[in-house]
Design goal:
The chain contains three helices and 13 strands. The longest helix has 12 residues. The chain is globular. The relative contact order is 0.24. A hairpin with a 3-residue loop joins strand 5 and strand 6. It is an enzyme of class 3 (hydrolase). It catalyses: IMP + H2O = 5-formamido-1-(5-phospho-D-ribosyl)imidazole-4-carboxamide.
């Protein structure tokens, strides 16, 4: 089954995976405080605005210490910036998703995102053509751009960031390209990525 890009989130960690039929020549790299999706060296040139973006950022927030934000596009940056300004995670997710809205491509692709605070409060959100959904999660929960565009529980047993990235990459959904993982540890958030190499 092809579900497109997806987010998995739980109170102690999560992952984001790029799945693509149209732009498979992408990878995740680390850049300062972010994991970034971008074209590989052999990728054909494109002016598609949805191909490159920060997919995961860990930020310091005034009240909560560290919080991580991750998702499938340019909305990750405004979510992270609102968290840094002290917005509650729910408001940062809802306002950013609503402001940027679903992607105006041929498929009306939803935007998906998640946050986790360093005290284990996890939220998942999506904005589709017909709905804005932001809800707390107590167990691993998935939302995808296609077929599974409403949050649903999923078995996800990763205990480290690298395990989360690998497990997301290996999930039985078609056209895996790359994945980012995050895990809450005693020392804060750790991040990792898997480019399938």
């Amino acid at each position: 089954m092809y579900v497109g890009r997806f987010v998995v989130v739980g109170p102690e960690g999560g992952a984001y995976r790029v799945s693509s039929r149209s732009f498979p020549n992408r990878k995740i790299s680390e850049r300062e405080d972010a994991l970034t999706v971008g074209p590989t060296e052999d990728a054909p040139e494109t002016d598609n605005p949805y191909v490159a973006y920060n997919c995961l950022r860990v930020v310091e927030t005034p009240a909560d210490g560290e919080t991580v934000a991750f998702g499938n596009g340019s909305h990750v940056d405004p979510i992270a910036e609102k968290l840094e300004l002290g917005y509650p995670a729910r408001d940062a997710l809802a306002e950013s998703l609503l402001a940027l809205d679903y992607e105006k491509d041929d498929y009306d692709t939803p935007r998906i995102a998640a946050t986790i605070t360093d005290d284990g409060e996890a939220l998942i959100g999506t904005v589709r053509k017909d709905a804005l959904i932001v809800e707390p999660v107590e167990e691993p929960t998935l939302v995808a751009t296609y077929e599974k565009d409403s949050p649903e529980a999923i078995e996800f047993a990763a205990e480290s960031a690298s395990e989360a990235a690998r497990e997301a990459y290996d999930l039985e959904f078609e056209h895996a390209v790359c994945a980012a993982g995050v895990a809450l540890t005693d020392d804060g958030f750790e991040t990792a990525f898997e480019n399938g190499e």
